[in-house]
Amino acid sequence: MQITNMFREMEIRGRVAIPTKSLDRNGVVPQSSVVTGLLKELLLIKSTEEHGYFLAITELKSIGNGEFEDESGDVLFSVAFHCRTFLPVNGEIMLGVVHKIHRRGVFLRCGPMKYIYLSAQKMPNFYYAQWKTREIFINDDHSRIENDVVIRFVVFAVRWRKKHWDIERDFMILASLEGDCLGPVSLPGSDELEL
């Protein structure tokens, strides 16, 4: 297993468009409007293949002079800021919560990542079963994988999707339980682990 750091602190430069209605009486755009515009743009962008998911702006380094854009009527500001990002990488060990179970595998969520698939073929010694009214994966020592269970897994494949069906600007992850200390960490309703 490789040890990497999926959380990164990086400097990013960009441009923020501010509508002219945000100008104050003196024709000046308040700094708070530029910061709000920057946060809204990052929320819309969500993630990029190069940087990963945008989690937080940690420092606003500079805001350039505004330039009026005739076509849109907006004022454009160049900005430089430090941002904390989350970029999934192969070999990283993570925790995810099961949210959907199928005969051939389970879907997990982890932080901003909604598309993590753990195939039944990548769950050694677990087999599919229907228990009461629920679908689960169970192994010989009665460890269960079911909805809302926290699972420790290793990332073995990452794919960036800019646009694919209803998935937009997101990473798709393939997970595995092949390795030491991987598998269910807590049962549903357990308060042993806080995420």
UniProtKB/TrEMBL annotation:
Q: Which branch of life, at top level?
A: Eukaryota
The record ties this protein, via InterPro entries, to:
NA-bd_OB-fold, RNA_pol_Rpb7-like_N_sf, Rpb7-like
List the GO cellular component terms. Answer: DNA-directed RNA polymerase complex; nucleus
Q: Which GO terms describe its molecular function?
A: single-stranded DNA binding; single-stranded RNA binding
State its location(s): Nucleus
GO BP annotation list = DNA-templated transcription initiation
Keywords linked to the UniProt accession: DNA-directed RNA polymerase, Nucleus, Transcription
What function is annotated for this protein?
DNA-dependent RNA polymerase which catalyzes the transcription of DNA into RNA using the four ribonucleoside triphosphates as substrates.
| Protein name as catalogued | DNA-directed RNA polymerase subunit
User: Which species?
Assistant: Camellia sinensis var. sinensis
Q: Taxonomic lineage of this organism?
A: Eukaryota, Viridiplantae, Streptophyta, Embryophyta, Tracheophyta
